[in-house]
Amino acid sequence: MDKLKSQNDELQKLAVDLNACDLSGGPSLNHERSRRKVENTNREFWYFIKSELNKLKQLAEETLRNIDGNDEWRLKELQDLGDLVFKRLDYLQNPKDCSTAKKIVCNLHKGCGYGCQLHHVTYCLIVAYATQRTLILESKGWRYASQGWETVYLPLSNTCTDRSGSSIKHWGAPSVIENIQVVELPIVDSMNPRPLFMPLSVPADLAERLSRVHGDPSVWWIGQMVRYLTRPQPELADDLKRTKHRLEFKSPIVGVHVRRTDKVGVEAAFHSIDEYMIHVQEYFDKREMIEPISQRRVYLATDEPSLLTEAREKYPTYIFISDNEISKSAALGTRYTDASLRGVIVDIHFLSLSDYLVCTFSSQVCRVAYEVMQTLRSDAANNFYSLDDVYYFGGQNAHNMVALENYKAKHSKEIDLEVGDLVGIAGNHWDGYSKGANRRSGRSGLYPSYKVENKVMVAEMPTYPEADKAS
């Protein structure tokens, strides 16, 4: 406060100096010096305030997380929950008798990119889990690898890969498909009816434990599905290890994903490398308040080959780790090739291993990396900065926030909030305000982001006691 008063007194004195200037024949030297001093004082004072707020934020985050000494417990609890889900999936996917098992059939021929297709299979696995059916993935002729999913990932089952059954039907109401052995799934956008267990819901029997230890349970839950689906074949696992050694990938490191080519102007706006690096610098600045950092490393994943050179020229104090061959393979003409498939897998792998992620959540590759990140460490719900969208899962049910405090709109673009209101979020403006629709009042508009929190959606799903016995 003393510094704030001192700065205010100086600004007032400078304002007097400005008024005293003789401007006949143009501004005097004193006038120009005083004007520049006012500008500089304002700028430097803003830097000071921003720095102090960042220090307070970092101190609060570290103190709140570690003050009770339970960080190790939280990590173990998440690991235990992850192991439990993995065992349930393994039990579901390996029935004793495939000929009588109930099945969900999922086709990988959806016409979109890798991240979109992976999320399609993820949705299929969630439906399989929630309906207690073994997932049969039909992936031969996959646009990325004609021999299918098993080209790079382990089979989803060791005992049941055959779609045959006594009866078969397309997805429908529970009463229609309950006694059908084989159910075929559409793409998520065509699913009708839409069950409550769809993202962003989490299983009811895990919800309380998960909510205690993770800031965004739905992302963690989806990440467990992705983790099971993308278990690498031995050759791929060895390749990832060699690549990590070759690139000298090590912590601390920030993963930056810059998507250009076909996305710009269609699904996302253009963002310069400078916009990403602002948040990279903020992350390292905050981390250096706790520990010294000798090298600031960035893993740069992009489909723009020239961006690596630009980044290194503009930010010579940073070490940029990237594989330009991956960037070249992501070009439109070579996107659906073996090299391109390897490239996107490598990028997602190292982005997810990063300590922090700066990207655009309009990109499914970025969202996949964020999902996988949740399976690799303690609560990483806030280990990201998105330049555009909030996190979402394509085809999800409504994403609701719940109001923690009352708020009275200050102008026509804002909406009122009452404690307990559900607000369907449309986007975070990343300036302290979000946009959404108040389910109670029916009004849409802006509201302070800190006055709400995610509403954890819970859905009844099977508990798999046989699998749990092994836990």
From TrEMBL:
InterPro entries: Fut8_N_cat (IPR045573), Fut8_SH3 (IPR035653), GT23_dom (IPR027350), SH3-like_dom_sf (IPR036028), SH3_domain (IPR001452). Residues 396-457 form the SH3 domain. It comes from the Eukaryota. Pfam families: FUT8_N_cat (PF19745), SH3_9 (PF14604). It catalyses: N(4)-{beta-D-GlcNAc-(1->2)-alpha-D-Man-(1->3)-[beta-D-GlcNAc-(1->2)-alpha-D-Man-(1->6)]-beta-D-Man-(1->4)-beta-D-GlcNAc-(1->4)-beta-D-GlcNAc}-L-asparaginyl-[protein] + GDP-beta-L-fucose = an N(4)-{beta-D-GlcNAc-(1->2)-alpha-D-Man-(1->3)-[beta-D-GlcNAc-(1->2)-alpha-D-Man-(1->6)]-beta-D-Man-(1->4)-beta-D-GlcNAc-(1->4)-[alpha-L-Fuc-(1->6)]-beta-D-GlcNAc}-L-asparaginyl-[protein] + GDP + H(+). Residues 100-387 form the GT23 domain. GO terms for cellular component: Golgi cisterna membrane. Keywords: Disulfide bond, Glycosyltransferase, Golgi apparatus, Membrane, SH3 domain, Signal-anchor, Transferase, Transmembrane, Transmembrane helix. It is found in: Golgi apparatus, Golgi stack membrane. SMART domains: SH3. Residues 259-260 are annotated as: Important for donor substrate binding. PANTHER family: ALPHA- 1,6 -FUCOSYLTRANSFERASE (PTHR13132), ALPHA-(1,6)-FUCOSYLTRANSFERASE (PTHR13132:SF29). Belongs to the glycosyltransferase 23 family. This is Alpha-(1,6)-fucosyltransferase. It comes from Lottia gigantea (Giant owl limpet).
